[in-house]
Amino acid sequence: MQVRALKILTVAMAISAASATLAQSYPVKPVRVVLGVSGGGETVARIYAQEMSAGLGQPVIVDPQSAAGGSVGASMVARAAPDGYTLLYASPNSQVFRLFLVKDVGYDPIKDFTSIAKNVTTPLAIAASSAFPVSSLQEFIDYARRNPGKVSYSTTGIGTGHHLNSEHLKSLTGIDFVHVPYKSGPQQVQDLIGGRVQMAGSILSNLLPLAKSGKVRLLAIIGRERNPLAPEVPTVREIVPGFESLEGWSAYFGPAGLPRPVVQRIHAEISRAGALPTVRTSLEQAGYGVDISTPEELDALLRSNIMLGAKLAARAGVRPE
């Protein structure tokens, strides 16, 4: 028994020493971050990449691959070597919502990736055209009840978080509105400004400048709590009890089997970058909230989002094709 115990201790010490060596030596070449997001999300990724490059001592290269809702980039990382030199920067579009749109996604968001860290939350909101005669979410609900099927509600596509959140709102309130899916956020917002659609679910950072200039009206925040950029705007949950929301976020993942020391090294640099006052200020002014998670917290968030998304997709009648 003593000999066996000694062998186990020796192996454990060897593994520990190898892990320490790996953590100290990583990285020895540039790190590629495959970008599964676009728009403002790309700006966030590049801000972090610059700071991570300085901390890691190697270039962190951002590689935009956001086609097909980010699933192209996700597939690339799922097949990459788990050595820490190919990472994925993704949002729920590829890691959650894609599951409800496509029968064969080509990867498993849980099994094929190693969670590293969520770095920002992306506040979502509901806004109305300035020409639409409502000034609050409750007024919108009342108007839709009086005019079933005559109000249009736009989102950035079928099966997206905005779409599933809107269908959840319909199911809880009993209202009936027409869903108008768009392929791009800018076109959706332009049609809202022009009054071609009455309501929109979008990213707060897209809507806030328009609300301040009077082009649209912010009605509610989609999230657990009010947003400091618009503290006067209530959450949907304040108006509609029981509302469960799929919130926006972005996060870093590696291929499955990424060694723990490498995960810890990357996580440390993401955390350091997110703590810098210049980074926090620039992101908050752009409408993003710096929110660094542990790998375990990100894994739990991903699993809970998939479960909630499946429930909301079923209610909305969204089926993979």
Structural class by secondary-structure content: alpha/beta
* Biggest sheet layout: 6 strands, mixed
How many distinct beta strands?
11
Number of helices: 12
What is the alpha-carbon Rg in Å?
22 Å
Strand content: 15-25%
Shape: globular
| Spatial strand order of the main sheet | 2-1-3-10-4-11
N- to C-terminal distance:
58 Å
Question: Can you walk through the features of this model?
Answer:
With 321 residues, the protein is α/β, with parallel strands linked by helices. 45% of the residues lie in helices and 19% in strands. The strands form 2 sheets. A 6-stranded mixed beta sheet has the order 2-1-3-10-4-11, sandwiched between helices. A 5-stranded mixed beta sheet has the order 7-6-8-5-9, sandwiched between helices. Strand 1 (31-35), helix 2 and strand 2 (60-64) form a beta-alpha-beta unit. Helix 6 (161-173) crosses helix 12. The radius of gyration is 22 Å and the shape is globular. Mean pLDDT is 90; it is low at 5-20.
Keywords:
single chain, six-stranded mixed β-sheet, 19% strand, globular
Brief characterization of the structure:
45% of the residues lie in helices and 19% in strands.
What does the secondary structure layout of this molecule look like, with pairings?
Blueprint: H1 2-25, E1 31-35, H2 40-56, E2 60-64, H3 71-78, E3 86-90, H4 92-95, E4 113-122, E5 124-129, H5 137-146, E6 152-155, H6 161-173, E7 178-181, H7 185-193, E8 199-203, H8 204-212, E9 216-222, H9 236-239, E10 248-255, H10 260-275, H11 277-285, E11 289-290, H12 295-316
Parallel strand pairs: 1-2, 1-3, 6-7, 6-8
Antiparallel strand pairs: 3-10, 4-10, 4-11, 5-8, 5-9
Helix pairs in contact: 1-10, 2-10, 6-12
